[in-house]
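PROTEIN DATA CARD
Card holder: N-acetyltransferase domain-containing protein
Chain length: 166
Origin: Bacteroides coprosuis DSM 18011
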Amino acid sequence: MKLNILPMTQPEAKEIAANWHYDGVYAFYDRDVNTHEFAQFLSVQSRRDDYFSVFADGELIGFFSFKENEKGIVDMDCGMKPSWTGKGWGIQFMPFGIDFIVKRSHPSVIRVDLPLFNHRALSLVRRLGFEPVHEYSHQVDKHPYTFLQMVYWVRGDETSYHKEFK
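Structure generated from the sequence above:
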């Protein structure tokens, strides 16, 4: 599978927000039209140059957002098209995003925040070499969730996860 990454366009943001719906506990990731997050996701100004669409053989299958700070830390968020989740594609998808941001921005640390219920994502990032930093509680749509912040230490322009995942 050949992956490509491009700056997210407005039609792609609308496609993701309107049509990507997840089952069970993963409905947490649905972009509910009544939330502030939905409005930000659809705002070109809010997305700035931080959001990228990922394509597999021309099909929109996911996205990444990378928010950089002055200390060389990149906060990474991502999502995959619901029909692509839970099938093992994350092991190609995540390293692709990590490689992209390392080559683009040369961060020292990549940081992710994941809800504790998302065992699939937590397992994946652990396999890729992310390390837990701390747990915290956060309200999302008036519901409390516990998150685990994890970091990935970048070594030079190379990434430290196993080459077998590339």
